[in-house]
Amino acid sequence: MAGYSRLRRNSAQRRALLRDLVTDLIIHGQIETTEAKAKELSKLADKMVTLGKKGTLAARRQALTIVRDELVKEGQTAVQKLFGEIAPKFKDRNGGYTRVIKTLPRLGDSAPMAIIQFVE
User: Residues 31-59: pLDDT tens digits?
Assistant: First the structure.
């Protein structure tokens, strides 16, 4: 995961944060987070969809190094959802699988917030 913004965290914390965010994005389809995190997450989520479009065993193993092994529903994990449901929707698209929509600042600290979601 080289080439990413530091997000005021050390490398282990940053990797864990991005893994959690990309897994939640795959499970829920959209999440609300800060703008900086959403922009970094967009890069990683697009790479995961690209791996999902390949559909090979090697691509699945590469995705498993990033996406957490969480259950979406009975008998389906996040990686299975990525490869089975999300990636086939984008088979004719060459990139730009996510969108970042800016929203109102967070009430507590006025941090700029955004919603990140998969494009239909």
Answer: 999 999 999 999 999 999 999 999 999 99
Question: What is the pLDDT, as a whole number, of residue 3?
Answer: 64
pLDDT of residue 1: 57
Give residue limits of the domains in the chain.
11-118
Q: What is the CATH number of domain 11-118?
A: 3.90.1030.10
SS3 letters across the chain: CCCCCCCCCCHHHHHHHHHHHHHHHHHHCEEEEEHHHHHHHHHHHHHHHHHHHHCCHHHHHHHHCCCCCCEEECCEEHHHHHHHHHHHHCCCCCCCCEEEEECCCCCCCCCCEEEEEECC
